[in-house]
Amino acid sequence: MSTQTKNSVTVDDLGILATRYRVDDSKPFHLKDWDPDDDAALGLRKKDGKVLLKLAKERLAVLQELLYANGTASMLIVLQGMDAAGKDGTIKHVMSGVNPAGVSVTSFKQPGAQELVHGFLWRIHIAAPAAGRIVIFNRSQYEDVLVTRVHTDLLEREHLPGEIGTPAFWEGRFDDIRHFEHYLARQGTLVLKFCLNISRNEQRKRLLSRLDIKDKRWKFSSSDVKERQFWDQYQTAYEEAIAHTSRDYAPWFVVPANHKWFARLVVIETIIKALKSLKQQPPKIDPDFMKSLDDYREELSKEQG
Prior knowledge:
Layout: H1 17-20, H2 46-70, E1 74-81, H3 87-94, E2 103-107, H4 113-116, H5 122-126, E3 134-138, H6 147-150, H7 167-186, E4 189-197, H8 200-212, H9 222-228, H10 231-245, E5 252-256, H11 260-276, H12 287-302
Parallel strand pairs: 1-3, 1-4, 2-3, 4-5
Helix pairs in contact: 2-11, 3-11
């Protein structure tokens, strides 16, 4: 298979995607500065994206196999975004080529009674990846500084002491998230956080599509109508959360997601770059065990078929 598209964009050119959309935590962060339609000036088309995504999935499969085989590191992928931002589709298309034995997805819904009597990070820590594995959070610990920030009445269910919803309260939650992610990083987990950034108009089009096509109406929920009314509040909450929690050990990437195929390329290239940074090689096999395998192979070859 060719390693480039008809407009001469190669897999090597995609390296820019792994750095272009990373938030620089040394600079002020404003979500309005990130264009949901940006295409990194690569001039790609949707059909180009499909070719490059297929090639990228082949590279990802090799790297994921090495991660699983070595069992010395892990990866946590956090996907956040407004309704219809493309989180489910990103998971489906990006991870479709990897070994399912080494990858799992956790979707965090509204916490139940058992979860509400624990700290907000309790259920998150339980779902964190074991060594050698990739875990994807479809929504995550950030729901507790996004949804609860927009709807502070939800905090009343959490059995919390002291004042809730104050500036100091949110600073404390950001601190907790940073410390948790730093802890994961020191345990050998690569933490990558993606904000799938769509425009309000693009969300409108996608929600209309779900309503217009009856077979897609199962994707629609009553909360989609309610939450869209809080668009501006959510934009502010995302901006604050990203600004307070993007660090070298757990960076945020603001992915232009108005074009789903391009968002998937950005996500997969970022994952590939992070896994390549581990410089992992196939595990070395003990010489005695290797010899026993050679002997076993010879024994099998002598058997009658």
